[in-house]
Structure formats: C-alpha cells, structure tokens
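## retry 2 of 3
previous attempt timed out at serialization; input unchanged, resubmitting
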Amino acid sequence: MSDLEVRQLRYFVAVAEELHFGRAAERLGMAQPPLSRAIRDLERQLGVQLLVRTTRQVTLTDAGEVLLRDGRAVLEAVAAAGRRAQHAGNPEPTLRLTLKADYDAGLLPQILALYEQDDAAIPVSVHHGGRDEQAPALREGRADVALITLPFDDRDIDYEVLVTEPKVVALAATDPLAARDTLRMADLSGRPGPDDLQPQRRMDLSQIFSLVELGQIVWFPPESVALRHMRPDIAYRLVTDLEPTTVTVAWPREARSRAVAAFVRAATTVADRALTRPR
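## retry succeeded, writing output
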C-alpha cells in the first residue's frame, strides 16, 4: 500500500462529514464525478470499503469511521505545522498567549513581569478568546502557550496546574440571598445564568454585570474575578458545594521553544509564590 496523500484525506473527510457527495464536492470547490473517482481509488488503495453508498444515503463503515477520526487529526496537524512554520519564520517573533479574559487567577501581570526578565523572553502578544477556545488554538498552531481552566481537551497538550480557587455566586445586592454569608447550589435552584438567557450568544462582562444588577441572572465567577470587579449593586457570596476553578499553563506537547519554556517557568514560579501568601 502506497502512502496516503493529504489531498486524499481532505477529500475523504469532506465526504465523511457531509455524507453527501454533492455537498462535499461543493465544499471542496470541485465537480462531483472526480471526487467520486478519488474516493473509489482510495478504497482500492487501502483495500477496504470506507463508505456504503445507496441511492438515498451515504454511511460510514467501521473502517471509514477510523479513517475519519485519524484523517481529521492528520489534517489538523498539517495545518498547524504550516502555521507554526510561518510564525517561526517571522523576522519579529512573538510568543502568542491565549486565555479567557480575567481567567488567570489574577496572576498574569506578575507572570509577564517575571517572564520578561528571562534571557529567552521575546515579546508577548495576548489573545483573548471565549470558553473552550484555548486548547484548539494550541493544537492548530494559532497560539504558543495558554492559560486554561480545567477541564479541557488535552490531546497533544502538556500543562501544569497553577492554582485552584473557589467559585462564588454574583447576585443582585437587593436579592434576599445576599443577606447570607454562604450559599449552596440548592439555594440557587431555578435561577438562570448567562447561558440560559442567551444560549446562542456569548455575553461580555458589562452585559453580565448589568443583568446581575437587575436580578435577571446569577453568575458563578472564580473568586479572583469577583475581587477584581467589585460593584456596589452586586453581592458575591461563597457557594460551598460548587466545584472550584483550576487554572493551568498549557503548551503544545511537541513545543521546543525556549520562550515557551521561559513562560512556563515564570507562571509556575509566580503561582508557587502566590500559594505562600495569606488570602
């Protein structure tokens, strides 16, 4: 069996995801007949059937399911390799850091200050993203290092835990529950959160704060976020049975960058120092 080509994998993944040759051909910007021939050639090359075709539908065989899974990973790796090569060839290299805004346990300023003292340090470009965007950015070669909260998909990613901190609930200061020092999740049963109110659209902090102040939602930020955003019309209360937030520093498993290593050293050093300070 000859080696598979990236082009063949791209064709197959498109058909396997669409389960329709016409839609796959349109997605690939090609005619349907040569795409059908390419898939048949691929099956002959591998000696296995990948797709079951009828006049009404296309389905994957067990072999097709395996090739779809592995083919996606290969295509992601190829695209990531290209992005990393382009980034490495930049005459003015930067360390691309990705994180969700404010979800750094309050450590980022100290981490950057310590990192800049390292001989391996290069300028840092900070990229804020939404929840669950950091790990894909590392895998796809769009970021070099990340601050991510657990859990996340750590395929091909290494990480070090920096700090674990409690979550609190943010509620309107006029809410009767604000009179209590601590709460349990049962006390908040039925209260909507940001995702319940607008599940299809991500809210920014100003929108969340406004809705909390009006008593329309409650919100569960880490303690460090609450401390940075104290507002007179919002009460933050500890929720004793709420899972804490764990912040990690993460990087691609195959990374060999001295700048990435320097950032990880700075992050873990700052986190160790923070743990020795009184709350």
